[in-house]
Amino acid sequence: MIIEILIFLVILSILILVHELGHFIAARRAGVWVEEFGLGLPPRIIGRKWGQTLYSINLLPFGGFVRLHGENSGDLIQKPKKAFMNKSIGERAIIITAGVIMNFILAVFAFSLVYSIGGVPRKTDYVNIVEVRQGSPAEESGLVENDLVKKVDNIAIKSSDEFIKLIDERKSQEVKLTIERGETVELVEIVITPRKHPPEGEGPIGVVITDTEIYYPPAWQRPILGVKHGIKEAIFWGGTAIMGFFHLIGDLFGGMLPKDIAGPAGLFVITSEVAKTGILPLINWLGIISVNLAILNIFPFPALDGGRLLFIGIEKLFGRKLIPKAESWLHTIGIGILVLFLLAVTIREIKLISSLGVSGYLDFLSGG
Question: Domain residue spans in the chain?
């Protein structure tokens, strides 16, 4: 358990520190005085000043923070030219969004590393059976993992989409599959009847398929292809996160606590399970969380970076800043709502993990 906790804290710290590093770099480039860059959260254990910035190590090992001079309206301004609030709208917007950008860059780096080391996907001209579900028509007919589907009712197929289309058109009818099996390239014909109403999470015949494979290009090509696929992966997970947040908002307005969302306890459980499978899956998981953190932070809600960006947008639109006390209250209320939401999610997670166990909880999250 200690190792799992340490791994989780390291992952969490990397995510938040990279985010705060983005704010730090952008603030320094804009000429804003960074009063403190902290590792962990206060109370402070030790601090040392280099230049005009205090670099500190703090007691609570959860990420880090950046304290900017003149960040809040009530701050005492000692150096007006280096105060955050006195910078232009464009400079402040860049400083605020820099953390989100850094999280996205971290995700691209993580995914690129996974693809560079673990191989990159490429399209094939066959359909591979990756998994056969228990009790399914596929199992009963004799299909096994790594079978290659070449034909459906004597119609040659070269993609998963073609396979799915032909099977869907033949529900409740007998279908002949021509299978290539084993290293001897033995051709086998199997007759199967796709189900019209399969169980949730299963297709008509109960298989998981793919028409891609992992290959290992020459060493000099791997970083280039890794970055290419890393960017695509980050964009994919970014789109998934955006859709997820829209569903989250819909559920909340409907008075429901979203089912498939993981809070601190859930993230710890998932991270611990992923860590058991190896370093590359853990790096991949780091990338997925980093993208989600970026999308969450850019959401226009008070207390988040997106909320601060929204207020800057309002300032740009109306030509004047929001009343400082009003902005401060809105951020305080936002923090309170976020804390209450996290507490509600965490309490539910602890109850679910206690009653269902780790595997049951993971099935719950995935909709199983």
Answer: 2-118+232-365, 120-215
CA 314 to chain centre: 30
Q: What is the pLDDT of residues 131-152, one digit of tens each?
A: 998 888 888 888 888 889 999 9
201 in the Ramachandran plot: left (φ > 0), alpha (ψ -120 to 50) or beta?
A: left
- Report the distance separating Cα 15 and Cα 323, nearest Å: 32
DSSP letter for 84, please: G
Q: What is the mean pLDDT of the chain?
A: 86
* DSSP codes joined into one string, 157-169: --SHHHHHHHHHT
pLDDT band per the 50, 70, 90 thresholds, residue 90? very high
Ordered alpha helix ranges (H), 254-323? 264-275, 279-298, 305-318
Q: What is the pLDDT of residues 320-363, one digit of tens each?
A: 777 777 777 887 888 888 888 778 777 877 887 787 777 776 67
- 189 contacts 177 by C-beta, under 8 angstroms: yes
Backbone conformation region of residue 104, classed left if phi is above 0, alpha if psi is from -120 to 50, else beta: alpha
Report d(CA 346, CA 342) in Å as an integer.
Answer: 6
pLDDT on residue 80 = 85
Unique residue bearing structure tokens 């280039």: 224
Q: Domain 120-215 is in which class?
A: mainly beta
Q: How far is CA 15 from the centre of its chain?
A: 11
CA gap 103, 355 in Å, rounded: 34
Helices (H), the chain: 2-29, 89-118, 137-141, 160-168, 222-253, 264-275, 279-298, 305-318, 324-365
